[in-house]
Specification:
182 residues, mainly alpha, 6 helices, 52% helix
């Protein structure tokens, strides 16, 4: 064996010691992470994105593995309960040859609530909103202004506006709240 320079030998020993220390630290960290995962101890998070591998993450549960379920879209033709497919233009296999204009009418009728999906029959009570009278519309608008004004006020001002609404009416309370904002 040839004579080696003592300087090189010292550098090799230092490098070997550093590698061994790094490997030991990594092994200890992995063992701690595995034990923490087994016992369900939450891990300390460092900066950045969490690791993807499962050894350092929380243990898997049934809830964490489950994928969210999506509601299947049904064929828009009245009375049809088959699922719609994008291959057939979002209708079922039986109705893939129905004209697109008819399909469009079926979808509009379903949105309006004039035809139910499963049976194709008209629902028992159609949901149609009655238009509010002008008096009711004004009252609703005033109530909305009052609630919006209360939201922006704090403490004594808010109490004063509430008291005014109880004694003199909501319209006076809205006027008061607008003067308090300025």
């Amino acid at each position: 064996m040839p004579n080696t320079d003592p300087n090189i030998t010292a550098q090799i020993e230092t490098f070997t010691g550093q590698i061994m220390a790094t490997v030991e630290a990594a092994v200890a960290e992995r063992i701690q992470a595995a034990l923490a995962g087994v016992f369900g101890v939450p891990q300390k998070r460092g900066p950045g994105r969490p690791p993807k591998h499962l050894a350092t993450t929380a243990p898997l549960t049934f809830a964490s593995v489950r994928t969210p379920t999506r509601k299947k879209q049904l064929c828009p033709v009245p009375g049809c309960t088959s699922p719609a497919a994008p291959v057939f233009g979002m209708v079922c296999k039986q109705h893939k040859n129905v004209a697109k204009a008819k399909i469009k009418k079926y979808r509009e009728a379903r949105r309006e609530g004039t035809v139910s999906q499963a049976t194709g029959a008209r629902p028992a009570t159609p949901k149609k909103m009655k238009k509010a009278t002008p008096k009711v519309a004004r009252a609703r608008k005033l109530q909305g202004q009052y609630l919006g004004a209360l939201k922006s006020l704090k403490g004594a001002d808010r109490a004063m506006v509430k008291k005014t609404a109880a004694e003199k009416g909501v319209a006076e309370a809205v006027k008061l709240s607008q003067s308090l904002k300025k």
